[in-house]
Design brief:
Distance between the termini: 50 Å
Order of helices and strands: EEEEHHEHHEH
Shape: globular
Structural class: alpha/beta
Largest sheet: 4 strands, mixed
Strand content: 15-25%
Helix content: 25-40%
Number of strands: 6
């Protein structure tokens, strides 16, 4: 059965969906406010805040600066290629950025197919948990982020990969 919950965060209200089975809950998506292509909650889904207790505890620890790597059962749907790219995202260390080209190289994807890697990164349904925000342009630019570049900048600043902008 597909379940969902909403969870307050420094980025706004997060929408989490998951599949419940005898073995527990596997997270299928995590979306941020204003995200392009975010899943809509359908009436066929049931809200169950308790089922997401482990997920929300890890998110709270991440935003409090106490967690640098998520350890959760994941079950996001995607092609074999997308799954491969998404698993590679999990290997990008907290507070470190990489480029789409470097990610493609690490996956053994030919240079001519970097756009396919970028498209797979953009299709990541598990924002924050699978840290696609850590992938930036070769020139250091903050390339697209499904929830908006401003959220990408906030996450990278939170992790120390970017310096906070001076106020004034």
């Amino acid at each position: 059965m597909t379940l969902y919950t909403v969870h307050d965060s420094p980025l706004g209200e997060l929408l989490l969906t998951g599949e419940e089975s005898a073995g527990g809950l596997a997270l299928t998506s995590l979306s941020l406010p204003g995200q392009r292509g975010a899943p809509a909650v359908r009436t066929a889904r049931r809200r169950d805040d308790r089922a997401f207790a482990a997920v929300t505890a890890q998110l709270d620890a991440y935003f409090a600066g106490r967690l640098t790597r998520f350890e959760l059962p994941l079950a996001a749907a995607g092609s074999a290629f997308r799954q491969r790219v998404w698993r590679a995202l999990e290997d990008i260390p907290y507070g470190i950025t990489t480029t789409y080209g470097a990610l493609a190289e690490r996956l053994g994807v030919p240079r001519a197919e970097v756009r396919a890697v970028a498209a797979a990164v953009a299709a990541n349904p598990l924002l924050i948990v699978r840290p696609c925000h850590r992938v930036i342009g070769a020139d250091g630019s903050m390339r697209g982020y499904a929830a908006g570049v401003e959220h990408k900048v906030r996450l990278l600043t939170h992790e120390g990969a970017l310096q906070p902008l001076p106020v004034g």
